[in-house]
Design goal:
Elements (H helix, E strand, L loop, with lengths): L9 H18 L4 E6 L5 H14 L3 H4 E7 L2 H9 L1 E2 L9 H7 L7 E2 L2 H4 L3 E4 L16 E3 L17 H7 L5 E3 L11 E3 L2
Parallel strand pairs: 1-2, 1-6, 2-5
Antiparallel strand pairs: 3-4, 7-8
Helix pairs in contact: 1-2
The structure holds S-adenosylmethionine.
Length: about 190
């Protein structure tokens, strides 16, 4: 289904941009590298970009690199085009919609300042993991993706994620809205 929308579970986004990343910047040399694994049509990585621009202004582009990846080429094409409408905006604050989209008829293209910052890659999390992703990443968001995996394939077995983190260190955060769902978010730490 590739279901996604801007500012989905904003509490996780707030924690990332207001708590976790500022702490990481104290000890790590920028740019910090963020990956949205299973990004669908791009709303998740673009939401991170908006939240970081809100907090850091234009400096955010020097401090952070943002990549989105998905196995589905159709959704990746849509992500790269960066044109949205309707339900994609159901949780996005109106002020951010006005700031980061320029309406064209009934569709809403993202402004170039965001679209050109976020990059997209095609990859399969259940593939061999080598050469697919240019890791390691400092943060990997892995939300609402493992629902696609069968029970016999725990997310921890993903060679691609192991490669992307550099070493297999992660904190698993359960999606608080869907506590039955495995691994709402994975963060290299
Ligand atoms: C429900 S969407 C979630 C999008 C976004 N992470 C969010 O939380 O809003 C799940 C995405 O995971 C992708 N996906 C499923 N299995 C995958 C795999 N093995 N490798 C990469 N992406 C995968 C699907 O193509 C889909 O676009």
């Amino acid at each position: 289904m590739n279901e996604t929308y801007f500012f989905r579970e904003p509490e996780a986004l707030d924690w990332l941009t207001d708590t976790y990343l500022p702490r990481q910047l104290v000890n790590k040399q920028p740019p910090l590298r963020l990956l949205s694994a299973g990004c669908s049509s791009g709303e998740e990585p673009y939401s991170i970009a908006m939240a970081l621009l809100e907090r850091y202004g234009e400096r955010a582009k020097q401090l952070f690199q943002i990549t989105g990846g998905d196995v589905d080429h159709q959704v990746l094409n849509k992500a790269q085009a960066g044109v949205y409408g309707g339900m994609a905006f159901r949780a996005l604050p109106t002020a951010l919609k006005a700031r980061y989209f320029s309406p064209a008829g009934r569709s809403f293209p993202l402004v170039d300042a965001i679209r050109q910052w976020v990059t997209f890659r095609s990859f399969n999390l259940l593939g061999p993991g080598e050469h697919e992703l240019d890791g390691p990443f400092d943060v990997i968001l892995f939300r609402n993706v493992s629902i696609y995996f069968d029970e016999a394939t725990p997310a921890g077995d993903s060679a691609a994620l192991k490669t992307a983190t550099g070493a297999w260190r992660y904190c698993a955060m359960w999606s608080h809205r869907n506590p039955g769902q495995r691994l709402g978010c994975v963060i290299a730490c």
